[in-house]
Amino acid sequence: MQTYQGPPLSTLSVYGQSIAEAIVAVLRSSCNNLTRPGLMQAAESLTSFRSSLMLPGITLTLSHTDHRAIQSLQPVKINVDGSVIADGAVISAEDMAAPTPASGSLTATPHRLN
Question: Confidence band (pLDDT; 50, 70, 90) for 60?
Fold first, then answer.
């Protein structure tokens, strides 16, 4: 980032690079079928993808029925020497109850893009 006078490293730059690597993997697997259906099929077939910034053992798998890229998180400590150690239990999206709207509150209607 410093070489090209970019912003300082942050969680957003790490997230952005990981997303970009996933997009490159989807484009490669689309077999030059760059139509929306071709790209959707390639994205929904992403299996065991691993970004260069992910810790060992962390992978990304998407399917036709599961578009949630991030399904669990784990707090970690990053030492001054760059080593990473787990600092807490894995928090899974499946363990979290979906929030329910409070009675009388306004809710948005979800839209699906086709």
Answer: confident
